[in-house]
Amino acid sequence: MTTAQILLVDDHPTLRQGLAQLISLEDNLDVVAQAGSGDEAISLAIKHAPDLILLDLNMKGLSGIDTLIALKRAEVQSKIVIFTVSDSESDVLQAIKFNTDGYLLKDSEPEELIEKINLAIQGEFVISNPLTQILARSLRPNSKKVSLLENLTQRELQNLKLIAAGKSNKDIANKLGIAETTVKVHVKNLLKKLGLKSRVEAAVWAVEHKISH
């Protein structure tokens, strides 16, 4: 089993330790380093090249967003997920604007947190369940889009439902018994038909319109 390396970034040592202990219970996850500031996080990220960085939003000194921007500029390839107490719509949208790989709340249930961490490492955009509707509202889907479902093929609709369920292209391919390259084509087509730009928007759109899998 491959062990994914994680960097924790938070200016509260007690929280970092508690989170590290929770993660250490998972055989496939390992906290390789901890940072108490944005500057330290950048240095450690370059040194360790972790698979995932859990980044606090509100820190003294360099803020979480500023740290996120700096990490991107430094061409750090790690997945970067915001981990915060803030459920503010503006904070969520700002993080997404600067290409975060996820946005998780600190009061998440341990099981949900570990599940989301694993999904993020696999390349999925993750967001705490209570924030899904905030993101959906921000996209302000036009009611006319409901009729756009009629333009989707049955296979594209199946793909959309599985995207909404948080499945990766590989998972969808296995579920539907088709090639992963075929899944990518279906996803590209359904995004174009729905006038959406990304899988994240597609997932949120599906939730907003109660399209269950």
Automatic annotation (TrEMBL):
The GO terms this record gives for MF are: DNA binding
Domain (HTH luxR-type): residue spans on this chain: 145-210
Q: Does the keyword Nucleus apply?
A: no
Q: Sorted alphabetically, which SMART domains does this protein's record hold?
A: HTH_LUXR, REC
Q: Where is the Response regulatory domain?
A: 5-121
The keyword Metal-binding appears for this protein: no
**Which SUPFAM superfamilies does this UniProt record tie to the protein?**
C-terminal effector domain of the bipartite response regulators, CheY-like
| Gene3D superfamilies according to UniProt | 3.40.50.2300
4-aspartylphosphate, modified sites: D56
Q: Which UniProt keywords apply?
A: DNA-binding, Phosphoprotein
Q: Which GO terms describe its biological process?
A: phosphorelay signal transduction system; regulation of DNA-templated transcription
Entry-linked NCBIfam families: PRK10651.1
The name on file for this protein is Two-component system response regulator NarL
Per the UniProt entry, what species is this protein from, by scientific name? Shewanella atlantica
